[in-house]
């Protein structure tokens, strides 16, 4: 439009038109012939202006249409982010996902009851949750572990069916957030088709997430593309395993549903990113296959292997020079070794891990993964089967060594989760002893890291076990009675010794208490605190304290067989 104004301005400022105006101004008494000549000249000028403006408009319009055609060529205006080809692929993926889902994706109804870790002889209120699942080979249903965690009753419903079928949980892997369900009723399997597992999708490949999210009762399909593939924190199991990030929304109820690419499963939806929009995560096929094969080979879930190491990167050149690393060498430094791991007998602190099973480690601890992608070498370790050997090349005192290490799942000193089992406890003279677990600390609320006892929290997250079956036993609370008066402020301290003997776990503590043959029972706690009780009087007071607090037993079910 600015160009049109400039054309008009130039025409009106011409010397001819200015001359005519000037002549018209000074020739007022002129004859009628002069006036007609001026009017005719003005009409000619006006016509010239109109023709030039029309010509300019036609050329500007043609330029705009030509530019627009080249700019938007190959794009679909219904989906302005995707070219037509990719939009068609996404549409085809969604249609294929819908067709496959109708006879394979199911809705899971779970009734669960979680234990109360502060009052370990009680359960919390019963609650009902819903999720998704899908049929796989072998007449099994795959879903998320958190969908059936602490379950007491599980039902499954097919798409388009009004009947709910009773399901049994065959195997649960809380670490990888996967579970396998089975259904005995033959009627359920009529018309059901298993989904086939595919491969790890590449970046920007389209996937369709199928499930039963909140907001409705019927099946739902949402599409998205793969954003990244890397090890991610699994919220349910507090583990670090490979995951696929997609830009499709994964809402409560979607959990356990398949993410379909073409006509195969690319992953299982399991979590989203809190505080972000349209960022969801799916469990990739390698993790799924590792879980399923482990269950088939062992009859139950075993876990994912670990080296039991804490490593430091060697990105600083001075650090590398100090450990005699050549310019062509890359790797990570061994900082801590779990005493329960096989690596504890083979590796040493300050060893430089150069490669794992022949795959070179970078100075940041990553290894090559597909096309110009990198992933932490922990993924290679986690994909190993239990009791499988791995060859680790290390640099020690300037010399390279190839060492063979047997890999095993390693349990932490303080368990990070305790699903599907009741907490352990032992009560004597109103003193409630429990093993320290992270679920116990979670009872302090969402901000448990800051609100729970600082000393217990630090030990739970950082301390390593020194021997097998070791537990950190704490005095969780004191049920008040005359026998324990004055000891109520000693709660939430770790128990170290009973009558001078260091305890290994809760079972050991109970054995030491029951085998006491002295007049007094002495219990040494953390922070140099001591509890002393008359043993016979304390033993007699225990039953009355249990009756007063309506506690059915002084010991948890898992320790009843040792009574």
From TrEMBL:
Domain (Protease Do-like PDZ): residue spans on this chain: 414-558
Alphabetical keyword list: Hydrolase, Protease, Serine protease
InterPro entries for the chain: DEGP_PDZ, DEGP_PDZ_sf, PDZ_sf, Peptidase_S1_PA, Peptidase_S1_PA_chymotrypsin, Peptidase_S1C
Single Gene Ontology BP annotation: proteolysis
Keyword set includes Protease: yes
Gene3D superfamilies, alphabetized: 2.30.42.10, 3.20.190.20, Trypsin-like serine proteases (2.40.10.10)
Pfam families reported for this sequence: PDZ_3, Trypsin_2
SUPFAM superfamilies, alphabetized: PDZ domain-like (SSF50156), Trypsin-like serine proteases (SSF50494)
Record's protein name: Peptidase S1
Organism expressing this protein natively: Vigna unguiculata
